[in-house]
Amino acid sequence: MPTPATLLTIDRSALAANWRFLAGQAAHGHCAAVVKADGYGLGAVEAASAFLAAGCTRFFVAHLAEAIILRAGLTERFPNAKPSIGVLNGLLPGEQAEFLAHDLLPVLNTPQQIADWQPEHPAILQIDTGMSRVGLEATEFDALLPDLRRRNFGLLISHFARADEPQEALNRLQIDRFSAAMQQLPGVPGSLAASSGIFLGPDAHFDLLRPGYALYGGNPVPGKPNPMQRTVTLTTPIIQVRDVEAGRPVGYGSRWHAPAPARIATIPYGYADGIPRVTAGATFWLNGKPAPVVGRVSMDLITLDVTALPEAVPGAQIEILGPNRDIDTAGADGGTLGYEILTSIGRRAVRQYIG
Ligand SMILES: *Cc1c(COP(=O)(O)O)cnc(C)c1O
């Protein structure tokens, strides 16, 4: 087998520590784990296993197909655990039998989905409190209340639109709308806070926290120090080094010219591996020393200025994500979010689990 070019190392102990930390923030109640999009790119079954071993018993994914894979993977590894798995995107026509066969909970988002689900079976209800994306409208909730009260809902959920902006008035409004809805469904526990919502304080917590991003090491409090542990390291080897004279152009479109004689290292990583092509001003690292990205990001290659790094030789490992470059920085460099960086890491990166 060829030596893997790019290695994505995922630290199970850091995942577990992040879940324990967030669960410890819960004002009351419990903490779930959102493992949609293949565990934010890190492997849903692996990530969920780390959270489950740390004490997590409730999981969420986006799609039914993701839930079926997660159920099979967790049953194989933890035959006696029987964690709950909720499907955020809801119930499509004809899916009830599949949900029941795999012991999955649909998040019912519309009157039609509620009508399509037999009332005696357990389910989760979602209401919209300010995002206008999925979940019942307030008018629909009021109209359906007599029916909703007869149903077997184990949880009421809603989702913050701006929890990463704690000063925004919409957060308070969403908390108040959610509290009012909960009072209409006595005995049904509630869940509103995802990663950033947890840090809005106890009023936002209700009965179940529902983090995703922060579990994987993303900063839930942008602009403040990240309380989470890093879970991923992404490295790739230098494949070629060359000396270039002052003024020589590097890369597509000749967008960078060496300002002085320089050494350029090429690495086998590009936008096909998930780094945004627009990434600008980024710095990768070699042995903790900066190796700035120069020239355009290609599909499979990136060029680095390693003039100051004598150890930059073919085979030397370049840190793309790691202690010196976190996922939030990578998102900012690429004009996006760490969420998109994590979920875009390509299949060419070999996943390796440690811890
Ligand atoms: C994705 C998602 C979450 C987790 O959000 P993070 O910001 O990643 O913590 C929680 N709830 C719902 C409904 C989601 O769609």
From TrEMBL:
Any Gene Ontology biological process: D-alanine biosynthetic process
Limits of the Alanine racemase C-terminal domain: 231-354
Chain positions with N6-(pyridoxal phosphate)lysine modification: 36
EC number(s) given by UniProt: 5.1.1.1
Reaction(s) catalysed by this chain's protein: L-alanine = D-alanine
Residues engaged in binding substrate: 133, 299
Pathway: Amino-acid biosynthesis; D-alanine biosynthesis; D-alanine from L-alanine: step 1/1
Keywords: Isomerase, Pyridoxal phosphate
One GO cellular component term: cytosol
SMART domains given in the database record: Ala_racemase_C (SM01005)
Top-level taxonomy: Bacteria, Pseudomonadati, Pseudomonadota, Alphaproteobacteria, Rhodospirillales
Family assignment from sequence similarity: Belongs to the alanine racemase family.
The protein's required cofactors: pyridoxal 5'-phosphate
GO molecular function: alanine racemase activity; pyridoxal phosphate binding
The name this protein goes by in its record: Alanine racemase
Record's function text: Catalyzes the interconversion of L-alanine and D-alanine. May also act on other amino acids.
Source organism of the structure: Elstera cyanobacteriorum
Catalytic residues (positions): 36, 252
